Amino acid sequence: MSESMPEIRRAIATAMKKNGQSDSARQQFTTLFVNYVEGNFENKDLKKMILSIEVPSGKEE
Amino acid sequence: MQLSLLNLKFHNIRDFSDLEIPLSKSKNKQPHHITLLQMPNGTGKTTSLILMSAAICGREFNEDEVRSFRPTQFEAAEGFFEALMLIDDEQVTVKIDFDYSNNTCMYSTSKPGRSGGGLSPGHNIPYRARMLLTQKFTHLFVFDGELSVRLLNKKETEAEAAISSLHFLDRMGEITLKIDELIEEERAKAESKAYTDKGLKILRGNASSVRDILKGLEDDLKRTNEHKEEAEKAFKTKKAEYEGIVARSKEDRSSYNDLKDKITKKKQQIIDNARTLMVALRRPALFSRQFHDELSSLANQMTKLKLPKTISYEFFQELAQSSQCICGEKIDDKKRATIIANAEKYLSEDKIQVMNSLKYSVRSMGDFRPLDDVAEKIVSLHSDLNVFEQELTLMELRVDKDSRERAEKLQTEMGDLKHQIDEDGQFIKFMTEEDTTFQKDHTLTFKDNIPLCKRQISDLQKRIAEAADTLEFELKAKTLKMVIDSTISLALDEIKTKVVLKSNKRIEELLGNDEVRIHKIDQCIMIDKKEGVSQGQSLAVAYAFLATLFEDSSHKVPFVVDSPAGSLDLEVRREVSNLIPQLFPQLVVFILSSERDGFVDGLAQQYDDIQYYTIFKDPGARGKTVLDDNVDFFMNFHSETEAS
């Protein structure tokens, strides 16, 4: 994903904010997605991404 | 990602026995901007398009499809199609071999960078290209005309899928599948069934119940201990009172205690001597003279040992055949015959070993030793014990009647208390025993044993922790999936809006004041026109849509199109011929002679780098195809030429 794909970056930022996620989570996911498209992806990166996600209040057990 | 087609080779494909179509300028790896392939109907346009698409995306062919490539004009057991491509500045060759005997095909690919251009099995183009160049995506630029229909068909999803592919939104969708895989992995690791809220609540409920059981057991233990202590205290008090009744004076108490000690000692001595006697009773020859003598007599009569026949017969045979005995004496024929004759006396069946063992045991039984002294000692000890017990009874009888009654009552009460203490002790042991063998032997469970109950709680707590971790991971993963879904939806909406605006601008340029406009993209292209859309209008909309998509894309791919102008008006043809080459670095056009007007002259007016090919069947040689690169021939060729 090149810099010429502003729609996706904007969409990630909006979706992250809407779901109560931090700016660092947004950056982390953008990097993960770029790496995924480039073929530099490992499951452990995705697992790390998941663990850094904040569960919005009201969804906890 | 950048993709160009440089060269195509056909061998025994349909009517092509051997055909090579160079799409690049000589050896400089750069493709012609525009290649026009003029082919009459029925000479293999569709086949060429299918094979070019397959070489790019690596699609599979079924038996019928392979059969359809088999030449009909001449015999061939096998054939191949080979495409030389430039992918991100690397030359890659994809070859598809067809086996017409088995109707199978096999891909092979040159390894980029490998010297000599060796092919390895499989469709192994570079990773980035492989991820992008799916069959659906390839159909967007290897354009068979049918796509324009599918783009506008409400039952199809091609338009939205094209946007998703070009803008990587389908790749983002793949990440949600990876997330699902990770959730499954976490669940498997947890080994717990409590993956859901409900499951976790059940586990927590179970743990709470077991904790209640533990509390109940601990309360029971406390009560039982208190009860036992009270009973022991009462027993001690009653015992003291009893002993006080029996031995009122200090001197009496001392005598009473001495007597009790003596009785205890005598009882122990009797037990020790009885044990000695019991051991001796297992060997009767030691304490019965008659038995000993008779057994000795039996042993003396069993002096001759015999050898087992099966293993010892050879010994006598060898001895008889020797010239002299091991003692040095010479063995003549007479002695030899005697050895053989007498050997039988010393041989017996193999059970003789058992007999030998018996003989040995009897002979080693030992000397007779009378045990009368032990028996007498036991009698003596018993007599002493009787004396002491009588003395104790006398001492107890010396008390008055009331005291005696009291003592008897105390004895009964002490018996009851002792019973209570034993019962409590047993109950406490059941509740507190940690030994697993004991627990198993008495079929104890967490409901009646405190260590087991604590272990049960610990196990449940571990499972709860695992389940809670799994649940938390799942909640986080689901939140991320929501983020991804939302991202895709937001990005798709924004891109679709832009694509509609830009495409409509192009449609206006192509069709002038025509009323055809894209209303929106909802899976397919929705046209804002009340009346039906003509074939030419559909094609113009499709070109406008694809042009917009690829213009904004970072991917540079060739546009391969079959009959691009057939259904278009002359004016629209010129507009299309002007538009398409601007959007694609390489344009490969399969064209009929009837489409040249408006389209080819339009191209020739605007662009310089055009390669003209005319491909037709050689009327003079069956199965031979001619590739002519002469422009004039191209411009004057008519399909009727071939027919003639």
Describe this structure in words.
- The complex is a heterodimer of chains A (61) and B (644).
- Chain A is an all-alpha fold and 61 residues long.
- Chain A has helices at residues 6-18, 23-38, 43-51.
- Chain A is flat, with a radius of gyration of 12 Å.
- Chain A starts with 5 loop residues before the first helix and ends in a 10-residue tail after the last helix.
- With 644 residues, chain B is an alpha/beta fold.
- Among the domains of chain B are: 3-156 and 523-643, Rossmann fold, CATH 3.40.50.300; 288-368, no CATH class.
- In chain B, the strands form 4 sheets. In chain B, strands 2-1-4-5-6-7 form a 6-stranded antiparallel β-sheet. In chain B, strands 8-13-14-3-15-16 form a 6-stranded mixed β-sheet, sandwiched between helices.
- In chain B, helix 8 (197-246) runs antiparallel to helix 15 (401-432), helix 9 runs antiparallel to helix 14 and helix 10 crosses helix 13.
- The mean pLDDT of chain B is 85.
- Chain A binds chain B through residues 1-2, 4-5, 7-8, 10-12, 14-16, 18-19, 21, 29, 32-33, 36-39, 43, 46-47, 49-51, 53-56, 59-61, and chain B through 127-128, 131, 167-169, 171-172, 174-175, 178-179, 181-182, 197, 200, 468, 471-473, 475-477, 479-480, 482-484, 486-491, 494-495, 498, 552, 554.
Helices and strands in order:
The complex is a heterodimer of chains A (61) and B (644).
Chain A: H1 6-18, H2 23-38, H3 43-51
Helix pairs in contact in A: 1-2
Chain B: E1 3-13, E2 16-22, E3 34-38, H1 45-57, H2 63-69, E4 78-87, E5 90-99, E6 104-110, E7 119-121, H3 127-132, H4 135-141, E8 142-143, H5 146-152, H6 158-166, H7 169-190, H8 197-246, H9 250-281, H10 289-300, E9 307-308, H11 309-321, H12 333-343, E10 347-348, H13 352-363, H14 372-397, H15 401-432, H16 436-441, H17 450-511, E11 518-522, E12 524-527, H18 535-551, E13 559-562, H19 570-583, E14 587-591, H20 596-606, E15 610-617, E16 625-628, H21 631-636, H22 639-643
Parallel strand pairs in B: 3-14, 3-15, 8-13, 9-10, 13-14
Antiparallel strand pairs in B: 1-2, 1-4, 4-5, 5-6, 6-7, 11-12, 15-16
Helix pairs in contact in B: 5-18, 7-17, 8-15, 8-17, 9-14, 10-13, 11-12, 17-18, 18-19, 19-20
